[in-house]
Amino acid sequence: PYSIHYGVLCKTVEAHSEKTEFRSVEALADSIARVVITKCHAPKITVRIDKPRALLHAASAEEQLLDTIPRPLRFNMDDVIFVKDLKLSCIIGVNPWEREEEQVVVLNLKIYPGMDDTPDRKADYVSNTHNYRTIVRTITKYIEASSYKTVEAFVTSVARIAIEKCHVSKITVKMEKPSAIVFAGSAGVEITRDRAFFSSNVQAKTHTRGTSSVSTIPGFGKLHPDLDIQKRGPVPAHLTHEVYLALGSNLGNSPANLENALKMLERGNRVRVIDTSFMYETPPMYVTDQPSFINAACKIKTDLAPLELLELIKEIETEMGRDFNTIRNGPRPIDIDILLYDSIEYHNETLTIPHVSMQEREFVLRPLCDIAKDVEHPKLYRHISQLMSQLLLKQEESGAGSSDIHKSVALRNKVWHWDSKTYIMGILNTTPDSFSDGGNYSTSESAALRAQQLIDDGADIIDIGGMSTRPNSEEITEEEEIRRVVPVIRLLRSRGFEAPISVDTFRAAVADKAIEAGADLINDVSAGRRDPAMYSVMAKWNVPVCLMHMRGDSKSMMAMTDYGGSNDVIKEIDQDLSRSVQRAIEAGVRRWNIIVDPGIGFAKDCEQNLQVLRRLPDLIQSPTSALNGYPCLMGPSRKAFIGTLTQQQDATKRTWGTAAACTASVAGGAHIIRVHDVKEIRDVIKVSDAIWRGPQA
Question: Which CDD domains does the entry link to (predicted)?
Answer without folding.
Answer: DHNA_DHNTPE, DHPS, HPPK
